[in-house]
Design goal:
With 309 residues, the protein is of the alpha/beta class. Helices cover 24% and strands 27% of the residues. It is built from eight helices and 15 strands. The protein has helices at 41-48, 124-137, 154-165, 179-185, 198-201, 217-223, 261-272, 289-297; strands at residues 2-6, 15-19, 29-38, 64-72, 84-88, 100-104, 108-110, 145-149, 169-174, 189-192, 206-211, 227-235, 251-254, 282-285, 305-308. The strands form three sheets. Strands 3, 4, 5, 6, 7, 14 and 15 form a seven-stranded mixed beta sheet that branches. A six-stranded parallel beta sheet has the order 10-9-8-11-12-13, with helices on one face. Strand 11 (206-211), helix 6 (217-223) and strand 12 form a beta-alpha-beta unit. Helix 2 crosses helix 3. It is globular.
Length: 309
């Protein structure tokens, strides 16, 4: 079968399209005929060797996947050949940048029926990140206020939709190119971070500050003033410290997204109910994945890209 893999860590040039043996599912596993995988920044981090996730080489990237169950191993219940599924695969194992992938049965849920199956690969890890940041780490609930810094990316737009659905007031920062999209996602206030001082632009304080952007650490620390006493600062930027303010009881939490089958199934239901929009900005063939990694290195990727085998 076709796959893209790397045999050593390094730049995008270490990725190559190859022919490898079709895998066989073991106990508790299924084989999925891939409809699409999704590109995530963590794929580049593992390929480059600077994300501390233990992978065995050679490695196939693409831990977000959608597809159809093709074969089933022993001790698997609740799945049948032909089922359309999506999953957030274990990041240390081979991913979905291939024609087939082995997945733990417990990582898969029925795919949304309201959108094309390939597009559903854009949902799992990013939507789970938004949910865990807001509600598991941030503890948000109806009637509260959240400030989302760097809301123009995929996680930010999921976070806005989920927060609004929960009855939360949302202020968000964005660049000029994403302001309209952030407003369309439902943000109550949108701040152009290139043209406004954040603390001067917000009205009152927030229960949660969610940072999704690689901002200056000194600026990040200053932004904590926007959080009420006893509030929470949550960040997905694990490469830098998340600031707190112990003197006011403001705690800090850094998000490391975790698989959650029950939550992923709930997110699928929200998609099919029309309460959550899945955004795909580009669809590329498998052989173009190395070039996509090169684009990401140059900072030229916007939105969500899925990879079709």
């Amino acid at each position: 079968m076709k796959a893209v893999q790397f045999h050593e860590v390094g730049g995008p040039e270490v990725l190559e399209e190859v022919e490898i043996e079709q895998p066989t599912p073991g106990a508790g596993q299924v084989r999925v005929r891939v409809a699409a995988s999704a590109y995530n920044a963590a794929d580049a981090g593992m390929r480059g060797g600077f994300l501390p996730i233990p992978i065995a080489l050679p490695h196939v990237p693409g831990y977000d996947v959608s597809g159809t169950v093709d074969a089933i191993g022993e001790d698997v219940d609740g799945l049948a050949v032909g089922d359309a599924v999506i999953g957030f695969l274990p990041m240390e194992r081979d991913g979905g940048a291939a024609e087939y992938v082995i997945a733990p049965a417990e990582a898969l849920v029925p795919a949304p029926t309201s959108i094309p199956l390939p597009d559903a690969a854009a949902l799992p890890s990013v939507a789970l990140t938004a949910w865990q940041a807001l509600f598991d780490d941030g503890g948000l609930h109806a009637g509260q206020r959240v400030l989302i810094v760097g809301a123009g990316g995929v996680v930010g737009k999921y976070a806005i939709q989920l927060a609004k659905r929960a009855g939360v007031f949302v202020s968000a920062t964005a660049s000029p190119r994403s302001i309209d999209a952030v407003r369309a996602a439902g943000s109550d206030q949108v701040i152009d971070h290139t043209d406004a001082d954040l603390l001067a632009s917000v009205d009152g304080q927030f229960d949660v500050l969610l940072n999704l952007a690689p901002i200056d650490p000194e600026q990040f620390a200053a932004d904590v003033a926007a959080v009420r006493d006893g509030g929470v600062v949550v960040s997905t930027t694990a490469f830098m410290a998340t600031p707190d303010d112990e003197s006011r009881g403001v705690r800090a939490s850094t998000v490391f997204v975790l698989p959650n089958r029950e939550r992923l199934a709930e997110l699928v239901s929200l998609v099919d109910d029309g309460a959550l929009t899945v955004e795909v900005t580009r669809r590329i063939p498998l052989g173009d994945l190395p070039a996509l990694h090169a684009e990401a290195e140059a900072g030229r990727i916007a939105g969500k890209v899925i990879v079709l085998p």
